[in-house]
Specification:
The chain is built from 15 helices and no strands. Helix 8 runs antiparallel to helix 9 and helix 12 packs antiparallel against helix 13. The chain is elongated and about 100 Å long. About 3% of the residues have low confidence.
């Protein structure tokens, strides 16, 4: 992953090397070349940065100054960022050989080992397939944050397909856990919560217990599994609410309330709907006041607050009045009509809450 690689390399640059008393200092001209290489890295010009770092490692004079090892290690790391993995592996091997026993010699040895995991050809094929997946996932994720999941959906689907293919074909790679984790994130954005749950559980299975941050990784994955389960339950609540509302509408159509139209019923409907519209306007205004004067991070916006009052209220009122007219003359007609109106209002409220992603704020343990 280019971004992660650049961050790690930058940390290595900032950390530097402690020069032992018997080691000569870096020549000033070599230090300038090193700084120029670092600027190239920060600009994303990785191939040029690699050449510049190589120039420091092979500096013609100055003796065995310590920064030679760091520069050669960074030359290999820049080739990795440039996705020239074959040459990066060769440079890492050279660093490990030339500076065996040094800090950057050991780092280079570890980097070479990662590029040879399961065989150099297979490890490099894994990296190239993973790069292709990142190239789809990162722009799609950014687009989803800026314009919503619908706009990013095609890219997210392509990224998920690529990640699933990498995970299927290279399960033995040490970074397979990262692939499963990223696949879970993509499936969460796509609303495929059951699949995301399975992805995160697979990532937990692939997590390496000997990793430096193994406990932190597992804790993060457990929280993601829990969130996927909560999202799945919320999705089912929304589906059940919609199915219930559809059943109520069918029942209302069966009773044919329009056959029993009465002026009193129409007048009551008009008064109730008008009152609900006014309440919705007040709710929207209250939500706007809260966001402006009390809590600007309030999750309930003006539109959400207004619709949470308007849609369930109007639906419940019309359903109750409709069943009252349609069930006229039947036993318990008023009570049943009221109950069905309340159920319809609850179903619509559930769908509105889900549509505005308010479930997490109403109950983080739902």
């Amino acid at each position: 992953m280019v971004v992660l690689q650049a961050v790690l390399v930058a940390l290595a640059v900032l950390r530097g090397v402690t020069v032992a008393a018997d080691e000569p200092p870096t020549p000033p001209a070599a230090q300038e070349r090193f700084a120029a290489a670092t600027r190239l890295m920060q600009q994303g010009r990785y191939a040029e940065a690699s050449e510049a770092y190589r120039g420091v490692a092979d500096w013609p004079d100055g003796g065995a100054f310590a920064q030679r090892a760091q520069a050669l290690f960074l030359a290999g790391s820049m080739l990795e960022s440039a996705r020239d993995y074959e040459h990066a592996l060769a440079v890492h091997r050279e660093t490990a050989r030339r500076f065996a026993g040094s800090e950057f010699g050991r780092r280079a040895e570890d980097a070479a080992r990662r590029l040879e995991e399961g065989g150099a050809a297979r490890a490099i094929a894994f990296r190239r397939r993973l790069d292709a997946a990142w190239d789809e996932l990162f722009p799609a994720t950014d687009l989803a944050q800026r314009k919503g999941t619908r706009a990013a959906r095609p890219g997210l689907i392509r990224a998920a397909e690529l990640l699933a293919g990498v995970l299927r074909d290279f399960p033995e790679q040490s970074r397979a856990r990262d692939v499963a984790d990223a696949l879970g994130d993509a499936d969460m954005l796509l609303g495929r919560y059951a699949q995301a749950n399975g992805d995160y559980e697979r990532a937990m299975e692939l997590a390496r217990p000997d990793a430096a941050d193994a406990d932190l990784q597992l804790a993060s994955l457990r929280e993601k599994v829990a969130e996927a389960n909560r999202a799945l339950r919320r999705q089912w609540f929304d589906r059940i609410a919609k199915a219930l509302l559809a059943a109520i509408v069918l029942g209302l159509a069966y009773t044919k309330p329009w056959r029993h139209r009465a002026s009193t019923t129409m007048h009551a409907a008009a008064v109730l709907v008008l009152g609900t519209v006014l309440l919705a306007a007040l709710a929207g205004a209250a939500a706007e006041y809260v966001r402006v004067h009390i809590d600007e991070a309030s999750p309930v916006g003006t539109l959400a607050a207004a619709l949470l009052v308007l849609l369930p209220g109007v639906t419940g009122e019309l359903v109750a009045l409709g069943f009252t007219a349609g069930l006229r003359g039947r036993r318990w007609d008023v009570g049943m009509a009221a109950a069905l109106g309340a159920l319809a209002a609850l179903a619509v409220a559930t769908s509105v809450v889900h549509a505005f992603a308010l479930f997490p704020f109403l109950d983080s343990k739902l």
